[in-house]
Amino acid sequence: MKKHPLLITFISAASFVVGCDKEKSTAQQLDKIQAETKQAAQDIKEYTYTQKAEFVKTMQAQLDALNQDLDRLGAKIESSSDQIKAEAKPKLQALRDEAKKLNAQLDEARNATESTWDSIKAGFKKAYDATKEGINQARQWMSDKIAP
């Protein structure tokens, strides 16, 4: 089975989220996530129409990881003060809404034709980048609000 850098990136990102090194600063963690996200975005460009099924499978795994990130952020928010909850819940909901839109775009990718593939893939990439960046910003915001 041919290994793709995007799958490796996903596994690395998932490992990072699960086994986060507490010794590293938040800035270092965010830099690493941003680099992985940039690599994942580049890898999205490399999928051809004939690799559509693999693209959808890999991106579904990415979406699942994003949703797990959102669940972890939600848990942190719930264990925070009422003031932080009041500020963070609308932001978290907006991120969840973006993730739902991303899932709808992935459905479009599943149904893409050869003539629509490149535009659908580009739209997914743009939405994925925006959602991942939003999660990174939320994670940074949480670390600024809650002492480590």
Task: Outline the structure in words.
The protein is mainly alpha-helical and about 150 residues long. The protein has a single domain, classed as Four Helix Bundle (Hemerythrin (Met), subunit A) (Up-down Bundle). It contains 5 helices and no strands. Helix 2 packs antiparallel against helix 5 (about 115-145). The longest helix has 29 residues, at about 80-110. The chain starts with a helix and ends with a helix.
What portion of residues is helical?
A: over 70%
Biggest sheet details: none
First CA to last CA: what distance? 42 Å
What is the count of helical runs?
A: 5
Core attributes:
5 helices; Four Helix Bundle (Hemerythrin (Met), subunit A); elongated; mainly alpha; disordered N terminus; 148 residues; 80% helix
How would the blueprint of this fold be written?
Blueprint: H1 5-18, H2 26-45, H3 52-78, H4 82-110, H5 117-145
Q: What would you say about this model in short?
A:
Helices cover 80% and strands 0% of the residues.
